[in-house]
Amino acid sequence: MISAFFIYNQKGEVLISRLYRQDLKRSVADIFRIQVISNTDVRSPIITLGSTSFFHVHHENLYIVAVTKCNANAALVFEFCYRLVIIGKAYFGKLDEEAVKNNFVLIYELLDEILDFGYPQNSETETLKMYITTEGVKSQRAVKEDSSKITIQATGATSWRRSDIKYRKNEAFIDVIESVNLLMSTILRSDVSGQIMMRAYLSGTPECKFGLNDKLLLEKDASHRGSSQRRTNAVEIDDCQFHQCVKLGKFDSDRTISFVPPDGEFELMRYRTTENVNLPFRVHPVVNEIGKSRVEYRITVKANFSPKLYANNVVIRIPTPLNTANINTRVTAGKAKYVPAENSIVWKLPRFQGQSEVTLSGEAELSSMTVKKAWSRPPISMDFQVLMFTSSGLLVRFLKVFEKSEYTSVKWVRYMTKAGNYQIR
Amino acid sequence: MSDFRVTKPKFFATTKKGENYELRADLNSEYRDRRKDAIKKVIANMTVGKDVSGLFPDVLKNMQTEDLEQKKLVYLYLMNYAKTQPELVILAVNTFVKDTDDTNPLIRALAIRTMGCIRDDNPYVRKTAAICVAKLYELNPELAIENGFVAVLQDLVSDANPMVVANAVTALAEINETSTTKDIFIINPSTLSKLLVALNECTEWGRIAILTALGDYRPADSKEAEHIVERVIPQFQHVNGSVVLSAIKVIMIYMRIIKNDEMIRQLVRKMAPPLVTLLASAPEVQYVALRNINLILQKRSDILQNEMRVFFCKYNDPPYVKLEKLEIMIKLANDKNVDQLLSELKEYASEVDVDFVRKSVRAIGQCAIKIDEASERCVNVLLDLINTKVNYVVQEAIIVIKDIFRKYPNKYEGIIPALCQNLDALDEPEAKASLIWIIGEYAERIENADELIVTFLDTFRDENSQPQVTQNVVQRVLQIATSECDNPDIRDRAYVYWRLLSTDPQAAKAVVLSDKPVISIEGNTLNGPLLEELISNISSLASVYHKPPETFLGRGRFGADAVQRRAIEEQEEASRESPIQAQVKTNIENLLDLDFNDNSTPNSNTPPPPPATSSKSTNATANVDDLLDLFDNSSISNNNPSTPPQSSSTNHQNNGIANDLVSLF
């Protein structure tokens, strides 16, 4: 599998170099630098030279590179590279050149643990944090007291949870976070990718059952009871993925989501819907190129959600031609500013009430250019957050917690919809 | 765990003279912290490639410690230099042995990694030991077998702990692949059930190992296959895209065995959503997924029938993702969704990335050829694009229009004037050749055809070989071609035409005006056995390259080193030679170029080029074909060392060109 793992900085200097197999020399690091980092033509994330394959991922100012000499599982290698980024973020807050340089010993320690002979091992951050800690102080305690327990648990069927967790108050927080993607041109394409984050502060080994207004499940229930229940509110989920704690077999057979949660924060579920997406914002752009010297803009944005709700941090980016010399804008709300570095007008509205409508009108004066080249007109893009609103209409119906000691637990649910790729051409 | 970037010594700081001396002093310091920092500095130096092997005995002294972090660092150092300093490692053995008796399982596992020993009551140690057997086998296969390690490993497949099972499977699979007998890892009914149980309990990576093993297993009958498939399907819901892809691989392989049609239909239906979801992953994973979807579609074209929209390109998709999406959109195009697709492609044609724009224009042509009903709409879109006057768009559009003319003769000649207006803008050989072909083909309907052709003639001598063969005012052309042209291929061909024309004009007419082979876009598909092999390799590098593994791997693991050395040497050699040659060499060596062009254009009668043959040999055979073809009337191909490697349109183009020669008589 993976024969070597490298981390380079932007300049191509090796920051981390870990060989897992004898079939490579440390000097392969140079080949990657010459062939990829200093070669601007490279378009593919995978490169094979001779019989050596380089897989790379670009993150912050780092190249994260795995090298193999076999017909490796390409999807696995990339997923692993991204996993390392996630682990790095969990440990250092951010995985960039500085973090790598400051924590290189720890990164070696992690690489030693999560890859063995080039095969990925346990890479759950929560588990790793139990026995790979940043300072010797903590690790001494962890190692002496319960390393036996840790190791059994790290490999066991519920590797994500210790058995001796105790809370005075048992609480669970659920956040439903949806990213709504829109690509509006002559045809409209929209979809929602959702994420259900959970923070569980529950004692013991709680068995949880989680219910959504999932259309398939509700239909099944309805036909079961023989009742003609209303299912107007049900959501059709195209596909979903679960945290490893969820019993997949059970979901496959009767669509119930049951699990023993890890302690603390984790991503319980991801889902995707394409039917009946409620778009939080409608954008009507009118962009006219008048001759070669002027572009006129009139952009109207309307909030499509209930007037009781409001959106935060709304940013609308309106691209301008590369040869823009001057911009005049008038807005009915918020602030619009021309940002030459981004070649766009950035229009910010800190708060945007439901059902309200705002307009930007303006024009760009263009400087004359010697080479006439058509403007490629990149799409207008939007960024926003709407609290207590889901574009898909998804709702949490219940979260039940069963534990031996039969304690009562408090559950909280929040909803948020934010912009994914919200683009209007 | 918030901020660890507090004040820390700078281990990567620039070095002074005699650093090793200082390090040695620190390593032997009486202060523990100082020693530990020194070890860190040694590791940092090792990382940047400095030789710190001279410090071996000093580092070794620091091995006996209670500090786990320090111990790991020393092990890291030892593993790196153990090969070069075998006599010194013996000094370390005592500590290793001591470590295996340590009460701390983390330390025991660490020691095991470096030594290789196996039974333990702690699963963490066992799962580490399992991989260790694979390491041992690589170093010394006889030893691993004789001491019964491999046998123990086979037992570990039935271990109670899922992670131990997964690692045992991983290790056995690797050993099995390198072994000569290939009988190390055989799944029997009892191991099969253990694997299926462990599949639902182990880590994501363990699941992949088990799924891979299931992919290599051949179920006895349809029933068994159905049973396994039912256990595999829940994995479609896993967050890790590589688990999903591995599960899809198992299903695709087992569908060959399953006889139950209803089951197959159900599987095809269930496979679509997870495939679509993969498009929401990181771009690199998307890329792997797209290459695999391309394969899956070739096998099961019905799988994503209604999902064309999800393959629309986003403005900020990386180029390699966009190009793959285009390929898949063409595969999914049908008369129902073609309007959507065309308006999408038209958008793409206005983007900035030239390569992507060209591929988009080409895709419009492919739609026209694939879907008869849509050809007119496609031609209109192409005309719109020609009117944009963006140079490379126009040229590409003319190239694809030539293919459309070929597929639908005498249907769209009304647009010829529009094409001819752009005569002066053309500066690429392929575009020129295409337009000349069109003019030749419709010469009797274009009043000033000869004038138009003459404009090309003026530059004849400067052209490279593609349009050269296409000239019109025959006598003059042939004169120039035979007497003044440097390219022997063109001279030869000119002689052939000349002779043919002077001896028997009728025969010449028969040769060059013969029916052209039908054009289609089937060139994009792989042949049956190769496709099946690649499906068995879903998610692997082979599936990304669409090439069998042998073509990019050295023969056997043990030959790999030599192969790599040769590759590096060749690379260096190549870069010393002229840049063009270097380019050619790297193209052969470097599978990176992934041949986005490879099969992407309409290509009627050439089979996909055999992978990894050097371009020289193809040329040789092509030239022979060339002569034979001439009498065969099927196609005339022009291949010589100076043309870009087998541009797919040469075949029919030349054919048409020949037409045009005679149509003037």
From TrEMBL, chain A:
Domain (MHD) ranges:
169-425
Print the keywords alphabetically.
Cell membrane, Coated pit, Endocytosis, Membrane, Protein transport, Transport
Give GO cellular component annotations, separated by semicolons: clathrin adaptor complex; clathrin-coated pit; plasma membrane
Q: Which GO terms describe its biological process?
A: endocytosis; intracellular protein transport
Q: Which InterPro entries match?
A: Adaptor_comp_med_subunit, AP2_Mu_C_sf, AP2_Mu_N, AP_mu_sigma_su, Clathrin_mu, Clathrin_mu_CS, Longin-like_dom_sf, MHD
Cellular compartment(s): Cell membrane; Membrane, Coated pit
Q: Topology with regard to the membrane? A: Peripheral membrane protein
Signal sequence, start to end: none
Which PANTHER family does the entry mention?
AP COMPLEX SUBUNIT MU
Q: Which family does it belong to?
A: Belongs to the adaptor complexes medium subunit family.
Protein known as: 16207_t:CDS:1
UniProt source species: Funneliformis geosporum
UniProtKB/TrEMBL annotation, chain B:
A single GO cellular-component term from the record reads: membrane coat
Kindly give the SUPFAM superfamilies that the UniProt entry links to this protein: ARM repeat
Q: Where is the composition biased (Low complexity)?
A: 633-651
Entry GO MF terms: clathrin binding
Q: Which parts of the chain span the membrane according to its record?
A: none
Ranges where the Clathrin/coatomer adaptor adaptin-like N-terminal domain occurs: 17-504
Where is it located?
Endomembrane system
> Record's PANTHER family?
ADAPTOR COMPLEX SUBUNIT BETA FAMILY MEMBER
Annotated family: Belongs to the adaptor complexes large subunit family.
Quote the protein name from its UniProt record.
AP complex subunit beta
* Organism name: Funneliformis geosporum
